[in-house]
Amino acid sequence: MDFSIKTTLGISSFVLLTSLSAKASDVVYVPAYCAPQALTVFVTNKTSEPQRLWTQVRFDGELQELHHDIDAKSQIKIAGAQFLPSQMGFSIKSWTKNSLQITTRCDESLSIPLSDLTSPQVSHWLPSNVKSVKVHLLNLFLKFNTVKLQAFNKAGSVIGEKEVLIEKYYDTSSFKWTLPENAARIEVIGQERLHSLLFYDQFGEEKLSPAVALKPVTLPLDDQKTYFLVSTKDARPEESFVIALKDDQQIATAREQIKNPSLEKIIVAGIELGNGGFNRAFKSRDKSPYSWSVNRVDAFADFAHIDCDGSPDLTEERLEQKLNEGGRICFWRYRIIKELSPSEVASGTLKP
């Protein structure tokens, strides 16, 4: 096992990782719910091949990673104090999808299976006789994130509301919420991407209510733009993003890409902070809106520089760095594959 290498990702590291963008990775999230000295991460390799994962911590705009190797069909334990200098939110990335089972434990409390949900709108379901919950909200947006919580009883009536402002990227808001009567579910509604943990007490034992994204977040319906889905040509693509065009010539060129896939044009574009009201991860489980969007298409090119290669998820993961470097993308393996209706973009549901 090798636990020794710690990297601060700069331009050269970004280029190295983008060269591996053909493989979609798994990223799971952990709010700052536990002190590092009490935290243990358990990783089980479900495959017959050695695997690698990275713990990811953010300091003043920089992403720092510590890698860990795990043998086939084995388990390792990672102490929180090994990579966390203080109680703070973090993420864990594995390069091969569905290869690892990752859980955390705080001292001798229950083991928590980690999730990749980033949807701004999730539900936490509760059993009977629950009037008090502990909530941990992790902000996954580069700027502040306003989050509204609503508690509902068994009849579906609102019995409590709460609003929380999380000011910084990867900050956690933690609080105990006591309600006037038993709650059946808690709805968490953020303005931007976030991740939540919710615990409740049952017969003196703390339990976890996993977050569930019941349906994709609804985005504003805008029929003044023409939308296109951009993804790889794999049989089962794992990542995609959306562009919105207004220029007639660009729209015609994009449609030609769909009619004649052999043209193989790379989209060279600029990006900005915010989903723009249209950009979402259509291939993800929760269809979550991204924190970035294409604000201009510069070219449909035959070739592009390696510095702007990558993938939609990698851009999300390293968005602050990407924006600081000029906000330019040209994902080599990604092509326009489908024209989308405004209702598809708004609802997050693709028509057959």
Q: Helix and strand layout, with pairings?
A:
Blueprint lengths: L5 E3 L2 H8 L7 E5 L8 E7 L5 E9 L2 E9 L4 E5 L10 E5 L5 E7 L4 E3 L7 E5 L6 E8 L5 E8 L5 E9 L5 E7 L6 E6 L3 E9 L2 E4 L2 E2 L13 E6 L8 E6 L2 H12 L6 E8 L18 E10 L10 H6 L1 H6 L3 E2 L5 E6 L1 H6 L5
Antiparallel strand pairs: 1-5, 2-7, 3-6, 3-8, 4-5, 4-7, 8-9, 10-15, 10-18, 11-14, 11-16, 12-13, 12-15, 16-17, 19-20, 19-24, 21-22, 21-23
How does this structure look, described?
The chain is mostly beta strands and 352 residues long. The protein folds into three domains: 6-113, Hypothetical Protein Tm1070, Chain: A (Sandwich), CATH 2.60.290; 121-212, Hypothetical Protein Tm1070, Chain: A, CATH 2.60.290; 226-347, no CATH class. The protein is globular and about 65 Å long. A five-stranded antiparallel sheet has the order 1-5-4-7-2, with no helix packed on it. A five-stranded antiparallel sheet has the order 13-12-15-10-18, with no helix packed on it. It has a four-stranded antiparallel sheet with strand order 6-3-8-9, with no helix packed on it. The longest helix has 12 residues, at 248-259. The protein contains five helices and 24 strands.
